[in-house]
Design a protein that fits this description.
With 133 residues, the chain is of the alpha+beta class. It contains 2 helices and 6 strands, in the order αββββββα.
């Protein structure tokens, strides 16, 4: 068990802590279904007030097509309009995850094939036993 006295964060809120401790691109979800992708440059202490400043912003369409806002340097988004924030994994993490998924899938496939082989092998060949026995 860790020797910590409390699990409370020293940051003003969990919202602020998530942004501060996770330096990566984010997906902002809005109540009306729109999604915005970008690099958070600044964010408020609480989700209910203030604004999020995004750089490299892109709108994400319903079919997941990205529309880069190439002419926009920064976008200011009212934090109260954001319902969900997703923090994108770093590329190295994604590649490791893909490798782990592949290895796990291969192991499960081999395990299932082994079990299928065991189940298809009869416990004893009963073709020699007469029907009236």
């Amino acid at each position: 068990m860790p020797n910590s006295i409390t699990k409370r964060t020293s940051y003003p809120s969990e919202w602020f802590s998530a942004f501060q401790q996770t330096e990566r691109f984010v997906y902002l979800h809005f109540e009306d279904g729109r999604r915005l992708f970008g690099w958070p440059k600044e964010w408020p202490e609480q989700p209910g007030g203030g604004h999020i400043i995004l750089e490299k912003a892109e709108w994400i369409l319903p079919d997941n097509t990205r529309i880069p806002l190439l002419g926009i340097e920064r976008m200011i988004v009212r934090a109260a309009d954001v319902t969900i924030v997703e923090f994108e994994r770093e590329f190295g993490e994604i590649m490791q995850l893909a490798t782990d998924i592949h290895a796990t899938s291969e192991a499960m496939l081999q395990y299932n094939q082994s079990n299928d082989d065991d189940e298809s092998t009869p416990e004893g060949d009963k073709s020699d036993v007469p029907a009236d026995a």
